[in-house]
Amino acid sequence: MIRRLRLCVLLALASWFAVSSFFGSFAAEPSQKIARVGFVGTESRSTSLRGVPQFFARLRELGWVEGQNIVVEARWADGDYNRLPELMTDVVARNIDVLVTSTTPAAIAAKKVTSTVPIVVVAMGDPVGMGLVNSLSRPGGNLTGLSLQWADLSGKWVELLQEAIPRLSTVAVISNPASPIITKVAKDLQAIAAQRGVKLVFQDVREPAAFPDAFRRARQHAQAALVLADPLVLAARDQITALAAANRLPALYVSHEFMVSGGLMTYAVDSRIMFRRAAEYVDKILRGARPGDLPIEQPTQLSLAVNLKTAKALGITIPESILLRADEVIR
């Protein structure tokens, strides 16, 4: 009886120590910090790029789940440059751990607002030339991300238009001159077009209301259009592709987003690839990496897409040489 009582006491004590040890070690673990991510979209929520949902999907795959271990402070500029500084200031004031945005104008606005909060930028153009970073391999400072070297693509855009449109002599370049990178790309385009015997006529747009007149003039003076993307242009992509169709003007776009809206042709990097990669940058920063040590990447997965439905409506035939090289053909 005494032996059985001693055994019961020993078992009770062992159970108590085990439970105490479990809860003691649990209580001793520091509670996991909730990460705070600021996200400033250059378009509106309803017109955001296809890559934006992929950014959040990739974050979840990496273990960052809203409502559990991450809070996202999202703001939208609706394609208006003037709103970017205010939106950046607002999210930075929320004590965020990292700020995410896209395009060169947004990168410039973010850099002006904070020199301490890590910044991850998607699809910025020539960050070294724009003075945003010291170098691509070691950016330094608080900004990193993914860069599009449009200067390297300019020749390909002109070449594709020449191949698609027989006897092409004049191309209308529709763009927003308020974008710093657009001004630089325009110079590169002029030099390349001159070498290929093509004249460029620039149609400037600084607000959505200017697009109808820009396309009307483009149709009068050119056989095709090249539409350069920036926040204003991307936010108006449905309007732009509709105007190209109404004016029966073949156009090449430098963003795949326009293909969803019925665009004729594009040669660019898919935003879904870039935003997923940006999520991986954010993951590294939230786990302790310094943005200045993360090299800025230049995506190499460029793809060519052609919409044959749009081509038929415009009354043009896309050459077999282009279709054979196309990564996506919409029929």
What does this structure look like?
The chain is an alpha/beta fold. The protein folds into two domains: 35-148 and 271-293, 3-Layer(aba) Sandwich (Rossmann fold); 150-270 and 302-330, Response regulator (Rossmann fold), CATH 3.40.50.2300. The chain has 13 helices and twelve strands. The strands form two sheets. Strands 7-6-8-9-10-11-12 form a seven-stranded mixed β-sheet, with helices on both faces. Helix 10 (257-260) links the parallel strand 9 and strand 10. Helix 2 packs parallel to helix 11 (271-286) and helix 3 (84-92) packs across helix 4 (104-113). The longest helix is centred in the N-terminal third of the chain and has 27 residues, at 2-28. The chain is elongated. The model is unreliable at 1-31 (pLDDT under 50).
Give structural attributes.
five-stranded parallel sheet; 331 residues; disordered N terminus; Rossmann fold; seven-stranded mixed sheet; 2 domains; alpha/beta
Give the amount of beta strand, in percent. 15-25%
Largest sheet: 7 strands, mixed
CATH topology of the largest domain: Rossmann fold
CATH superfamily of the largest domain: Response regulator
Question: What's the overall average pLDDT, rounded?
Answer: 91
End-to-end span in angstroms?
Answer: 88 Å
The secondary-structure class comes to alpha/beta
| CATH architectural category of the largest domain | 3-Layer(aba) Sandwich
Principal-axis shape: elongated
- CATH class designation of the largest domain: Alpha Beta
Helix content: 40-55%
**How is the largest sheet built, in terms of strand order?**
7-6-8-9-10-11-12
What is the radius of gyration computed over CA atoms, rounded to a whole number of angstroms? 26 Å
Order of helices and strands: HEHEHEHEEHEHEHEHHEHEHEHHE
